[in-house]
Write a structure and sequence with these properties.
This protein has three helices and no strands. The protein has helices at residues 9-16, 21-50, 53-93.
């Protein structure tokens, strides 16, 4: 996993098009989750085949990474719903 502030070209294109950052994050998280789930499946297969402790550690790490992505993905939904609720409340109250 890279630790920098340079966006992938497709993400930069979405920024240039004016897409909301939360929407970009939500979509990219889904891509990362699919990749993480594939990696987790491979780790599970390797662990079942070898029964080695190192493969078990790799599965544990892959599981943690996938779970963390899922938590942040769920948070993007909660934020989107909260933003919509605030918007609706402001419209109703004329703020």
């Amino acid at each position: 996993m890279e630790n920098n502030t340079t966006l992938d070209p497709y993400l930069m294109k979405l920024v240039e098009l004016g897409m909301d950052g939360a929407d970009i994050l939500h979509g990219h998280l889904k891509v990362l989750m699919v990749e993480a789930e594939r990696q987790l499946d491979l780790c599970i297969e390797a662990e079942e085949y070898s029964e080695e402790a190192m493969d078990s550690m790799a599965r544990t790490e892959a599981t943690g990474y996938f779970d963390a992505l899922c938590e942040v993905y769920a948070l993007t939904y909660a934020i989107a719903f909260a933003k919509e609720e605030v918007k609706n409340r402001k419209e109703i109250l004329g703020e």
